[in-house]
Amino acid sequence: MSGKKVIITGVPGVGKTTVINAAFDKITAEGVKYQNLNFGSFMFEVAQADGLVTDRDQMRKLDRIAQKRLQKTAAEKIAAIDGNVIVDTHASVKTPNGYLAGLPEWVVSAIMPDVIVLVETDNDQILVRRLSDETRVRDVEGSKSIAEHQEMNRAFAAAYSMLTGCTVKIITNADFLLDKAVDDLVATLR
Ligand code: AP5
Fold first, then answer.
1. Average pLDDT, stretch 55-66?
2. What is the pLDDT of residue 133?
3. d(Cα 78, Cα 39) in Å, to the nearest integer?
4. How far is the CA of 127 from the centre of ligand 1 (A)?
5. For the whole model, what pTM was predicted?
6. Of all protein residues, whose CA lies closest to atom 48 belonging to ligand 1?
């Protein structure tokens, strides 16, 4: 499959979708074409049609087998898309039974990313963003637990790099410095 494949991850509430959308607009204005795909939306479409969930935040509470089936369907659809692609997703998903790899072998090998981006920021900033975002049903957890999830995501990203040979890029999306994060992502997409 031709084109650059860029997988962008980050714990819920870190602002990855905000950074992606702004970077997508900028890179498009430069004349570089990308498709901006949200892995969760591909999963949600099937989960909703199957009557498993009514909102996207319920998906991470589904049993592991159901989540893996949804992941597989999403990965197959995304892998079939040609050209430059951004995939907005998760290095790992926090489920009631522990961390689930967002990109298990059959997903990451199907997509074969050139780079995996980890969007990160201070745990306290993520906590405040989650509390202020009324549009979503965010998990309520303390900053220590958020720190653990960010650490786990680095470990998962290293494993994905070992499997595919992709690079791992860390982008910080700090309060008042959204533009810096967007510019870093645009440079990665070019
Ligand atoms: P997904 O659609 O990725 O939802 P999410 O995890 O909640 O991520 P969001 O995109 O909503 O949050 P975000 O961190 O991007 O933050 P946002 O930009 O909104 O996934 C949905 C579900 O799909 C998952 O829960 C999972 O079940 C499933 N899924 C997806 N991929 C999967 C996979 N591979 N395997 C298994 N399941 C998978 O920003 C948050 C807030 O922060 C906003 O209010 C924003 O204004 C603010 N903000 C952003 N940047 C800044 C800044 N620099 N300064 C101050 N405020 C900021």
1. 92
2. 83
3. 8
4. 13
5. 0.93
6. 15
Residues in contact with ligand 1 (CB, 6 Å cut-off): 10, 12-18, 38-40, 43, 56-57, 59-60, 67, 71, 88-90, 93, 102-103, 129, 132-133, 136, 173, 175, 178
Distance (Å, whole) CA 152 – CA 147: 9
pLDDT at 137: 79
177: left (phi over 0), alpha (psi -120 to 50) or beta: alpha
Q: Does the pLDDT at position 102 exceed 90?
A: yes
Residue ranges of domains in the chain: 5-37+83-189
Q: How confident is the model at residue 1 (pLDDT cuts 50, 70, 90)?
A: low
Query: Domain 5-37+83-189 - what CATH class?
Result: alpha beta
69 token code pair: 């089936």
**Torsion angle defined by CA atoms of residues 177, 179, 184 and 189, in that order, rounded to the nearest 10 degrees:** 150
> Cα of 58 to ligand 1 centre, how many Å?
14
Does 165 count as an annotated binding residue? no
For the segment 66-80, what is each residue's pLDDT rounded down to a tens digit? 999 999 999 999 999
